[in-house]
Amino acid sequence: MRDHPDVFVIGDGRVELHDRLQTPHDRTEAVEGVLVSWRDQKKFPSLKGWRSERYSVWGNGSSAAGGSRTQVVMEVERAAAGLFGMRGYGCHVNGYVTDSGTGQLRMWIAKRSLTKQTYPGMLDNLVGGGLAHGYDPRSNIVKECFEEAGITDVSKLKAVSVINFFGYSTDRGLLPDTEYLYDIELPEGWEPVCQDGEVAGFSLLTIEEVKQHLAAGEFMPESGLCVVDFLLRHGFVDASSEPDYVDISVGLRRPLPFPGPTYGV
Predict the structure, then answer these.
(1) Nearest CA to 95 among 137, 164, 154, 143?
(2) What single-letter DSSP state applies at residue 244?
């Protein structure tokens, strides 16, 4: 950062963007220029997974009506968010089928492609993806539903929850993250078909099988948390049988010390 004083101002225990960067576009382009140079110089492992897709970076602001809201102050390449400890965003769908005879619920679980930049070959929700700049959660997850599972009928897609957590990776850095969660009940006999090559296959699993895969650490981290949230909400994990029930419930929604999105204002 010290090599780029026209972009970063390093103070006492803090780093700020230069005050010459007055607009979101100016900030985005200046930081991206630095990131491109770091990527080309192979300075950070995370930049090997360059996405050419950006997260929104939100800051404090105010609405036209006078109320408090946040606004996008810049955009940042997804692969670089962890370098700065910037908040990331995603959307996930837990897809399930209810057996018409027994009432037993089963979940569709995806296996990530072996060519994925992150967590190749690990288990995933039926649908999941990063929330890139320019999308709101609903429009993003509808897009992902088709791309990852071939879902065209989203009439039963329900927004159900949101989770906040801190992730950490030696390659990707500190990862404060927010995931918007959806459930969709799917008909018996329906099978997902990946459209974008990012999924190696799908399995329709019983709840006990899902728990076993979770316990074995076979899910990518955020997807595993999304599945845990599903199990809690649907009563498959409760305080009578899980000693850490309260800690798990609270841990899924950690407060993050950064401004977050406000949509629809």
Answers:
(1) 154
(2) T
- The two three-digit tokens of residue 109, written as one number: 């679980």
Measured on CA atoms in the order 79, 77, 91, 73, is the torsion positive or negative?
positive
- Between 118 and 45, where is the model more confident? 45
Task: Retrieve residue 127's tokens.
Answer: 């649908």
**pLDDT at residue 259 greater than cutoff 70:** yes
* Beta strands at 105-112 and 123-124: parallel, antiparallel or unpaired: antiparallel
Cα separation, 116 vs 125, in Å, equals 15
Question: Which pLDDT score, from 0 to 100, does residue 117 have?
Answer: 79
The two structure tokens encoding residue 38: 């770091």
Mean per-residue pLDDT of the chain: 93
Query: In this structure, are residues 128 and 183 in contact, taking their beta carbons and an 8 Å threshold?
Result: no
Q: In angstroms, rounded to a whole number, what is the distance separating the alpha carbons of residues 222 and 212?
A: 17
Rounded to the nearest angstrom, the gap between the alpha carbon of residue 45 and the centroid of all alpha carbons in its chain is: 20
**Maximum Cα interatomic distance, the chain, rounded to a whole number of Å:** 67
Half-sphere exposure of 185 (CA within 13 A, CB side): 8
H/E segment holding residue 163? strand 157-169
How far is C-alpha 194 from the chain's CA centre? 19
Residue 115's CB is within 10 A of a number of other CB atoms, namely: 10
In this structure, what token pair is assigned to residue 79? Answer: 């692969």
How far, in Å, CA of 240 to CA of 220, rounded? Answer: 27
Q: How far is Cα 250 from Cα 198, in angstroms, rounded to an integer?
A: 32
Bridge partners (DSSP) listed for residue 184: 95, 157
| Calpha distance 11→162 (Å, rounded) | 35
Confidence of residue 69 (pLDDT cuts 50, 70, 90): confident
Average pLDDT over residues 50-58: 94
**Whether residue 17 has pLDDT greater than 60:** yes
